Known about the structure:
- Keywords: Isomerase.
- It comes from Dyadobacter psychrotolerans.
- The protein is α/β, with parallel strands linked by helices.
- The chain has helices at residues 12-30, 46-49, 59-71, 85-96, 105-115, 127-131, 136-141, 151-164, 171-183, 197-201, 213-226; strands spanning 4-8, 38-42, 77-80, 120-124, 145-147, 189-192, 209-212.
Amino acid sequence: MKRIALLGGTSWPSTLEYYTELNQRINQKLGGSHSCPMLLYNIDYHEIKSRYADGWAEIPLLLKTEIENILALNPDGLIICNNTLHKAFDQIKNEMQIQTPVFHVIDLTQEFILKNKWNRVLLLATKFTMEDDFFKKPLMDAGIEVAIPDPEERAAIQEIQTELAKGIIKDEFISYFQTLADKYDDFDAFILACTELPLAFRNVTAKPVLINTIAVQCEKAIDFILS
């Protein structure tokens, strides 16, 4: 099998989701005691996250350094375990000329939506990702209608995400997302474009399909690992 690398710690609770998802999928396919060959490179996310609000210009270089460190370990493929950091990755990928396959969350999500012929999606993510165009625009350019929640809801989602990123899950988070699911039930799908959101959506019943971007990345990675 090929060996995948995870650029994780971004946040640590959601990195555990990647680790679990990859191992479970390999074991389901191969049985026995099989698990996923992988490298977990866990960064101190505070150094990047603290710059989101007013230091974004520094983030691409910080990410570049971390990617160079993990690629020096010679993995066969790379998953960046964070949606927002794909904006920074897109700013440096041409300069880096990476030969190692990177399982790009936006490209794969777009492919997944088009494959399933969904037309209207609601983007749920960090406030930064919902309000920026880096995730929305590629989907819209592909003919997908992308909406985001109201400003007050975006602020509430951000507050919840901050707690989830610390490993804190409360019943009130699940209740809030259930309310959102009921309000926006006329969409084809919700994109959980923040890797912590699936932690709170597990017990939410939604009419729209829930697109877990972790699962989307891992599914493609597993095909690659076993190829």
